[in-house]
TrEMBL record, chains A, B:
InterPro entries: PyrdxlP-dep_de-COase, PyrdxlP-dep_Trfase, PyrdxlP-dep_Trfase_major, Pyridoxal-P_BS. The lineage of its organism: Eukaryota, Metazoa, Chordata, Craniata, Vertebrata. This is Glutamate decarboxylase 1 isoform X2. The gene is LOC106569274. CDD domains: DOPA_deC_like (cd06450). Residues 1-40 are annotated as: Disordered. Its cofactor is pyridoxal 5'-phosphate. Belongs to the group II decarboxylase family. It comes from Salmo salar.
Length: 572, 572
């Protein structure tokens, strides 16, 4: 008997919507298909209500109980995984913070003094998943990271079972070498020669970008490590108006100061304008400041725009500046023969941020900072703490990576990506990227045809980002202007709120520059099909239309003074 | 039939030592106890050699194959978990980097262009665990983080299945609230009032310490965020000679400069001397510098020493300095009624680092920075990027934590700790800590009695660290002095190398100040029993003694010029 095989009648039971069911108070017998069966063939779940943590390993004879407990847990988790991919499941079952805080039907977040039994823990596990968000659902379009790669998930389960640290070779021999292999491969794909390239996996793209600024500063002013910024002239960084805010944040953290980040203008497609960069550099020099670093973005967060890397690299070369390419989001396109042309020039970067947890679908977190100049990471970060990094060990201690990082101890973020690479091959990642971009094109084509939607920019998407407004009937014939903008600004938040309450899809929105709130749809989940894209548009249109006729929305009055929507009522 | 139940004859088969077996090329049938059985009762493993990633979810009708694949994986993982706790298992099966890099018996780290089949992936998973280190083994004493908490592991499996980000409430409602509950509880345990306290979970203790310096600087000089360090006077930090190197690293990263960290002298027990701190502060002021931050350590890395927090807090108060307590290692003792007295005064700290992944046994990583002043984290780090953090959402957006962190997106490190807390209760953590410290006392008592070992300091351990030398027979009657030191310095590395090759236990060593290489044993694994402590001492003594009589070690010659050990041979 296959323990993971749920009877069809039970697995296909759709998740109950909105309301909270008493069911969540006990594991349903359907989660326990490997339990003893009664004569009428119903399952009796194994009862863990008298079993406690103390009965599990390392307790003597704890093996069986531990295995039984994991069996139940795995049933719950795999049931969740299967549900995540089913379109009949909800993406989320939304509750406000105060509702969850107060405890829902016995799901209490409070921490006890005394142990609770394992039955309660299993119920808590089910509730934790129930009230969360299925980021792997084919209709979750909310973040750059989405999808649930099952091989990546298998990799994470192994990683946590191994429970070690990317600190020294002696405690992580296999993972340290996998990191080396992965980084080398990524450097090769970026286009660096065999003599070039170093790097490290980091806790997220912001940290990777922070590394790049840190390394650039050290490269030009190595004395900063010991003497600090007071020994240095006023340093200036450049990044585009559409770039990620982490460049500014890095400047603040590193003691450079966010005001010393010059924000370079973009064209209407969200790409940095090289001439603007050059004139900003010259202006900064004229003011007696010292430009040292330019961040170019390959795949901006909102528009998915690619900065013109070669033109920017030319400018960096002529002024002797460090070129960083933030390809956190766009790096995945390097895997696609069809799309990698959009990152032409990336090989000229001095450092690259690339997050496989975004476009390549690796589970969170998986982000690399790649550095062209070998040895710089170590020189910049090492503190030679011999009480932590002994040099008289019997193996090649250059594999002890702890001292070349900021973090010292690091989570193992490499195994899942390594295993996924084995499972898909480089070509599999390429196909996955192509598919996501095809979904974006499909959405773009649909939007062009519909009168109830408006594109934020008319050109074909370069990445998988598609930005658009839903235009309610009442606004369709209104002339452009501040009043229309004021009203349009309120549409996306209201639709998103309704969508989250219904729970059948999820998408993000934001304002940007002079553009009022618009939806940004992104595709990074290979589970998403064109039918899901179509569903999303219908859902938005239907929610927007319904609101118009419901109490939440009144027809626009002549005076233009009444808000488009009434303010939220308590339950909204 | 219980799918996780391995037949006793197979589960108890001890791991073959040293040599690499062809067995690792295929999953052994013992991993597949749920597979069909032949008439002679041997199991036939399900064959995945024609099944690929493309056959798994989200493939249509991929549910069954996905479940089958996870079944095999879980068998491998739980077999590893059980082995980790068995004393008959090896802690590690050591290979040098070049050996693993070259590929062992088909375990190739290289990344393919084409997909590999799932059978190969399962073999790779088994090999990854085989060549790794069992950090949960009762005889792994190498790191401050050890043990394999099975409830924590369950929490990690769920976390990776949920695959979300501590970024906004909308994508992590449950985890965001669990973080709040955990932080509040930890602040309460530290001793802060209900009006005080903020914090965030970070990727490791070094990052937590970096946060503390960042916040202190911002607290006194908020203009640093925009203007950078050049707007500030020369800032000085203070930390003890035995503190973690992350304080210096933070100063380097943040642009303060590592030379501006004043290293305060410790007594021979490794505790900061308050009078030395005070005079260092006065000296710095006299030199026109601006002291602003003191790091006190509660549980140093090597000695496990606790700085006198109240005396240091008095000095900080009188000089108006930020007091940070690095309780990454010692924080766990707050859970024990018996031992929490060692952290008396911690409630006076302005910020506290506390790593539940160390003494509380949470899986890696789990580290908190606690901050007394509410709102400071947000003020210091927020960049108000409205394209990421919309303020017009329909829920209370103060729960969107992304903007108060450095990292923006963050891994979910809270669920495992939350689940462990439910499983053990606060009292369970207390008992666990007590047990680890009892093991340390047991080791201390044993060492006092033995002529072949020497304690680094004679007083009873305060934490679970016990530091000692093994004294080979040839050194026992040698007078103290440089020559004895030179020889003694080589003993621990040689013994550790042999120990790693044999693989039955693992312990760290390091020099510190004027002390030559000594062993540091630490206890944070509740699976460790006194018999394991006894085993460790016998193992060290036996390896030390054997080496003396083997080719690796020659008797000391009169001239004192010949090294104690021959240099490593190729295979060593």
């Amino acid at each position: 008997m296959d323990y993971l095989q749920l009877p069809e009648s039970i697995t296909e039971k759709s998740t109950p919507g909105g309301q909270i069911l008493a069911e969540s108070k006990q594991r349903s017998s359907s989660d326990n298909i490997n339990s003893p069966q009664t004569s009428d063939n119903t399952c009796i779940p194994k009862d863990f209500s008298c079993i406690y943590n103390k009965d599990l390993l390392p307790a003597l004879s704890g093996e069986d109980t531990t295995k039984d407990f994991f069996q139940e847990l795995v049933n719950i988790l795999l049931s969740y995984v299967c549900k995540s991919f089913r379109r009949s499941s909800k993406v989320l079952d939304f509750h406000h913070p105060h509702q969850l805080r107060e405890g829902l039907e016995g799901f209490s977040l409070e921490l006890p003094d005394q142990p609770e039994n394992l039955e309660q823990l299993l119920v808590d596990c089910r509730d934790t998943l129930k009230y969360g968000v299925k980021t792997g659902h084919p209709r979750f379009f909310n973040q750059l990271s989405s999808g649930l790669d099952v091989i990546g998930l298998a990799g994470e389960w192994l990683t946590s079972t191994a429970n070690t640290n990317m600190f020294t070779y002696e405690v992580s021999p296999v993972f340290i070498l996998m990191e080396e292999v992965l980084l080398r491969k990524m450097q090769e794909i970026v286009g660096w020669s065999e003599e070039e390239g170093d790097g490290v996996f980091c806790p997220g793209g912001t940290m990777s970008n922070l590394y790049s600024v840190l390394l650039a500063r050290y490269h030009f002013f190595p004395e900063v490590k010991t003497k600090g910024m007071t020994a240095l002239p006023r340093l200036i960084l450049f990044t585009s108006a559409h770039s990620h805010y982490s460049v500014k944040k890095s400047a603040a953290v590193l003691g450079i100061g966010s005001e010393n980040v010059v924000v370079v203008k973009c064209n209407d497609r969200g790409k940095m304008i090289p001439a603007e960069l050059e004139s900003s550099i010259i202006t900064a020099k004229d003011q007696g400041c010292v430009p040292f670093y330019v961040n170019a973005t390959a795949g901006t967060t909102v528009y998915g725009a690619f900065d013109p890397l070669n033109a920017i690299a030319d400018i960096c070369e002529s002024h002797g500046l460090w070129l960083h390419v933030d390809a956190a989001w766009g790096g995945g396109l390097l895997m696609s023969k069809r799309h990698r042309v959009k990152l032409q020039g990336i090989e000229r970067a001095w450092s690259v941020t690339w997050n496989p947890h975004k476009m390549m679908g690796a589970p969170l977190q998986c982000s690399a900072i790649l550095v062209k100049k070998r040895g710089l990471l170590k020189d910049c970060n090492q503190m030679c703490a011999e009480y932590l990094f002994q040099t008289d060990k019997h193996y090649d201690t250059s594999y002890d990576t702890g001292d070349k990082t900021i973090q010292c101890g690091r989570h193992v973020d490499v195994f899942k990506l390594w295993l996924m690479w084995k499972a898909k091959g480089s070509e599999g990642f390429g196909s996955q990227v192509n598919k996501c971009l095809e979904n974006a094109e499909h959405l773009f084509d649909k939007l062009k045809q519909r009168p109830d939607f408006e594109l934020v920019f008319k050109s074909k998407p370069e990445h998988s980002n598609v930005c658009f407004w839903y235009i309610p009937p009442s606004l369709r014939n209104m002339p452009p202007g501040p009043e229309r903008n004021r009203r349009l600004h309120e549409v996306a938040p209201k639709i998103k709120a309704k969508m989250m309450e219904q729970g059948m899809a999820m998408i993000g929105y934001q304002p940007l520059g002079d553009k009022v709130n618009f939806f940004r749809c992104v595709f990074s989940n290979p589970a998403t099909q064109t039918e899901d894209v179509d569903y999303l548009l219908e859902e938005i249109a239907s929610l927007g239309h319904d609101m118009q006729n419901a109490s939440g929305l009144r027809p626009i009055c002549e005076s233009g003074l009444r808000p488009l929507y009434e303010s939220d009522c308590g339950s909204d």
